[in-house]
Amino acid sequence: MVRGPEPAPVSPERFAALWCSLAPIGRAGSDGGYLRYTWSPADLAAREWFVEEALDRDLTVETDRNGNLTAWWGDPAAGDAVLTGSHLDSVPHGGGYDGALGVVSGLLAVDALRSDAGGVAPPRAIGVAVFVEEEGARFGVPCLGTRLLTGAVEPQTALALRDADGVSFAEAMAAAELDPTGVGPDPAALARLGAFVELHIEQGRALVDLAAPVGVAQGIWPHGRWRLEITGEANHAGTTRLVDRRDPMVTCAHLVLGANQQARERGAQATVGRLAVTPNATNAVPAGVTAWLDARAADEPALRALVDAVAAQTLEQAGRDGTGVEFTEESLSPAVVFDPGLRERLRELLDAPVLATAAGHDAGVLAAHVPTAMLFVRNPTGVSHSPAEHASDVDCALGVEALARTLRDLAWR
Ligand code: HGY
Ligand code: MN
Ligand code: MN
């Protein structure tokens, strides 16, 4: 028996109208990419957009102790609440859909259900969340809002994280007029939740190959970030003989190639996408290079083995180059298998294929505490973390419909 309101059909035009009201916020430069660093003016404007949209819908907006926002339809205190949502922060020059699609789709899914609900709130409250610092683009640790909420990171550790300009998480939070002294786990807020479902643009091409607009997630590969401080000796690029140099960039080049080779051999992923060079001069051998390694693999032993092999190769090279290497783990996200019962329920309800992913999400953090699922929306090129990231309005509208049916199934269960 079907319970709850019949979700109204969602047209691509309806999706596009709300989408276009958010899309200009934080779009930076001519490449069409986004710069929405956590608590930057662009991120604060996007959060304000969310609060206004929620209040326009008579939803109750809650800011938790970690700065995560939730717009509630119904009273979550009644328990077994159903949460959806995602994030509004971006990687530097990222696409517009990563995160934002889940937030916009959550609001539109609530609209689709409310139009037939006759003003009656669901028996289990439905919330749309915006989580803080999912990308870790400003403070280095991804999913910081949900890690703090669930106790997966110590408050003092999070507060002390610094951005590239030396501004701490605590300082940035205070500048955003939020109280950093209150950050930390909130078991009572988590205990209210009966389910979390995050909708996200697919960051690959599996749905294209399956000719399906929407998929259900199986799980997330374990992944992590490591920082390598490679130190050498600054010197003149013209007068210093190659044999006399202690060049950290040479060690770094071997790191990049070694990580790529090790990941290829193991069917895993390894990326060096960020470097900081000191002093960063064309005609000077650098004094130091800081490199960040992002590594992902099918299981945790495979991930450890990959990172250990990359570290060993880099240290060996450093011995030849006369450089020093300090290796620091900045974050580790364990393997996630989403709740099998919920996943099967959604697969049947939506007649959607099941996909694995190597991308991280707040759903991965919450899955250890709340029955959690994810929906993916087809991305024709599979490109993500780039301005080329895209999903059609038609597929996005189908994603909203799938989310609305999911929320109905869970909230009126
Ligand atoms: O980096 C990731 O996997 C995600 O997109 N935050
Ligand atoms: Mn992302
Ligand atoms: Mn994301």
Q: What is the CA-atom radius of gyration, in angstroms?
A: 22 Å
State the shape. Answer: elongated
Q: Biggest sheet, open or closed, and with what strands and sense? A: 9 strands, mixed
Bound molecule kinds, no repeats? (2S)-amino(hydroxy)ethanoic acid, manganese (II) ion
Helix proportion: 25-40%
Unreliable runs, pLDDT <50, ≥5 residues? none
SSE pattern: HHEEEHEHHHHEHEEEHEEEHEEHEHEH
CATH architecture assignment of the largest domain: 3-Layer(aba) Sandwich
Number of strands: 15
Provide mean pLDDT, rounded.
97
The CATH homologous superfamily of the largest domain is called Zn peptidases
CATH class of the largest domain: Alpha Beta
- Secondary-structure-derived class: alpha/beta
Could you tell me the strand content as a percent range? 15-25%
Tell me the span between the first and last alpha carbons. Answer: 10 Å
CATH topology assignment of the largest domain: Aminopeptidase
